[in-house]
From TrEMBL:
The lineage of its organism: Bacteria, Bacillati, Bacillota, Clostridia, Lachnospirales. It comes from the Bacteria. Residues 115-247 form the PurE domain. One of its GO terms (biological process) is 'de novo' IMP biosynthetic process. InterPro entries: P2CMN_synthase_LarB, PurE_dom. Pfam families: AIRC. GO terms for molecular function: hydrolase activity. Gene3D superfamilies: 3.40.50.1970. It comes from Candidatus Limivivens intestinipullorum. The gene is larB. This is Nickel pincer cofactor biosynthesis protein LarB.
Length: 249
């Protein structure tokens, strides 16, 4: 029930002032005791609330998933385990699960994808994070072109796809090891580059810290950096940029 409806019911004497006060105090979120679902988020930001599945109790995840599905007609979950998929599938057989990206989702049918972003990886070991970025963007209505295994150890592979990458409204560069891919892409394109360091690498990579520091210290312009392995964050920001480009802002 939105604010106008609450006020209308107070005017018509079908809702008491005390009841209206209680409704307004919880307006914009659904109180579940263990969670407060931000059901107003899409109206405020253009993006519905997403579930971070890892660490959630089975009962909590099941109820949150069902409530968001009821409210939104679709729902996206990140970092879901195979066990959590089976848990949700028993209640919602239409749910889809990708074990590589660990994305758990129910989407509205025939979703139109607009614009285009390019999601690039340095190596195949980075694809799990890249898929989280690409599938997040697609869930939010953005077309994602996947350009995988184009790292700087064989830079001719990247250069063979330059024309397609340059057409993208935004580029997501996913790389572990030393994280050099983002700097190279930053020097090739006129659009924003979102760098995603991954935890892929040997000991001195320090679980992605080496790639993160390389990306933060890049001499190329137009590069922003998200947290280590944060494909979801990159896909979200890429969609924001893509929407602006589609609108011609």
């Amino acid at each position: 029930m939105d604010i106008k409806e609450i006020l209308k019911q107070v005017r018509d004497h079908t809702l008491s002032v005390e009841e209206a006060d209680a409704a307004l105090k919880s307006y914009g979120f659904d109180e579940m005791g263990y969670a407060k679902l931000d059901v107003d988020r899409k109206a405020r930001t253009g993006f519905a609330e997403v579930i971070y599945c890892s660490g959630k109790a089975d009962e909590h995840l099941l109820h949150i998933f069902g409530r968001l599905l009821e409210e939104q007609g679709e729902v996206l979950g990140t970092r879901a385990s195979a066990h959590q998929y089976e848990l949700i599938r028993r209640e919602y057989p239409q749910v889809q699960y990708d074990p590589l990206s660990r994305i758990l989702k129910i989407e509205k049918p025939d979703k139109a994808l607009e614009g285009m972003i390019a999601v690039c990886t340095a190596g195949t070991a980075d694809i799990s994070v890249a898929e989280e970025a690409a599938q997040t963007a697609e869930f939010f209505g953005t077309k994602a072109e996947r350009i995988y295994d184009v790292g700087v150890s064989g830079i001719h592979r990247l250069l063979s796809r330059t024309e397609l990458i340059q057409k993208a409204n935004c580029v997501v560069a996913v790389a572990g090891m030393e994280g050099a891919l983002a700097s190279v892409l930053g020097g090739l394109v006129s659009r924003p580059v979102i760098a995603v360091p991954t935890s892929v690498g040997y000991g001195a990579n320090f679980g992605g810290m080496a790639a993160l520091l390389t990306m933060i210290n890049s001499c190329a312009n137009g590069i922003s950096v998200v947290n280590i392995d944060n494909g979801y964050g990159a896909g979200y920001i890429a969609t924001q940029i893509n929407r602006l480009a589609v609108k011609g802002v």
